[in-house]
Amino acid sequence: MGRDFEFIDHTSDVGIKAYGTSVKEAFANAAKAMFSLIAELDDIEEAEYRDIELTAPDQESLLVEWLNELVYLFDWENIIFKRFDITHLNNTQLRARAYGEKVDSSRHKLKTGVKAATYHMLKIDRGNGYKVQVLLDI
Amino acid sequence: MTAPWQEILKKIDDYRWEIPKSYKAGMSVPGLIFANESMLNHIWEENVYQQVANVAFLPGIVGHSLAMPDIHWGYGFPIGGVAATRVEDGVVSPGGVGFDINCGVRLLRTNLTEEEVRPKIEQLTTELYVNVPSGLGSTGKLRVKEKELNEVLAKGSRWAVEKGYGEAEDIKVTEESGCMKGANPDKVSSKAKQRGIPQSGTLGSGNHFLEVEAVDEIYDRDAAKGMGIDDVGQVLILIHTGSRGFGHQVCTDYVALLGQAVKRYGINLPDRQLACAPIKSPEGQDYLAAMACAANYAWTNRQCIVHWVREALVKVFGKSQRQLGLEQVYDVAHNIAKIEEYTINGKKLTLCVHRKGATRAFPAKHPDIPDVYRDIGQPVLIPGDMGRCSYVALGTEMAMKETFGSTCHGAGRVQSRAAAKRSLRGADVAKALAAKGITVKAASIGSLAEEASEAYKDVSEVVDVTHKAGISRKVARATPIGVIKG
Fold it and tell me: I need a labelling partner for A12 at 20 to 30 A (CA). Which of A25, B240, B348, B458 fits?
């Protein structure tokens, strides 16, 4: 198995390319990539989880909304997520459970804030394995 | 050797470069980039002229799709972009404002001199760092409840002043008097409110900062005096922040919503992040009402922060606010959409001016600027990166004619955050700044590398272009002596 994700350099922001043998895995890896920008994930315990259910007009929009939902949860509840179990994903619906823990500044190292995921450069490649691409505003 | 852009860009003069309408099928107007020749190579490498061309697709756009000299690659709109659309039949695009709605800059003057401040700079930066919440994940000292948040969203700076944060005089020298009309908290999602409550009254992270700086050059003595900038060596404080998670969520919500509206109204766009809706449509009106809430949130934020900055100065120097002369010079938004009137080819038009990483630059006599500046023009505040300098400028008639009363907003990145981090270490950046006599307090040392001078264009080059092109004129320059980074 190769890498799960990589970052694309962008002058003001940062792009994510995430891979998977299924589109679910690629979505999970995109979320992991995003949280690895926000914090050092090795220090995060799987102390709690949040269930997420989303609908969107198409799968690309679903990817943006999935990441934006996680950005919102991080901002509102201060939870850093590190593992994502996507139980259902089609073109318009997503159900997932995200595991992580609340920020504890004595143990956790926060890195970069993410404002939002954008629709710019948004792509889902369904070829030999899945590749998703999204640009974050940081 | 000819540069690749020479085949596309039409030179108007040394500072103006046009992207003809014929460049890309679908452009309704040409693009116009304000830059000097040496900046164009970078603009080319980034493909950012493509984004300028894409913005020209927006229905109802008039004049040019404009790019200020600090332009860099954004998402959808370029950063440093200005686009004006007709209210009558044009669109509003949340991406043309950006996620950090009403990110902006506030400048405070003091009677202090660099000589007085230098011996106490360590104490002052520590006090500022303690008194103004900053950094990723930081929460504010303000504890607003949801009902109170709705008041913040409706009233802006006035809410803060009524609660004892800052002076009534501050409001007079704030763009829109710190309160954008038409704000309707009902048009804001509960998610945005949830993100906004804990973060109100925080500086944030990323490129946001507080800067203690000393005036080192005055280009127009009379105009500078009119703004309370009397002499070289005088200390000023610059505050740069925006609407935090609240604004980010408003933009997120409306990009998704308007992404659907695009289909309903049959609008063709080359980039989904340009999502927009007719200004007169319910979706367009709702966005403007929510955006105004975010703008007011940001003005409240800067209004509270200026109060805490004053407290820190009073504490460290043991003098009253009046003795220290802590008066606000001005406060400008640089990510916003505003409804403004312009005369184009002799015809009066009401336009929605999107400024994404651009500053309003109204000339003397304009009715929308404060009385105290009516004779000189609206102050324009242009922060540079933390190792170089910042500028105070003024709006001009030329800006009204050519750029819908707009000019640049800062230095503009040239290097990605990741690239800056690869080539520089935060600790080395702090050391290099210290060697220049700049004391830095940062919530995250890593973010120092991302925001190092090397990652930015030289703001002096940017400001020179706007000055020589005539869309704003330089008044004074200041160099940092202390910086607080989120």
Answer: A25
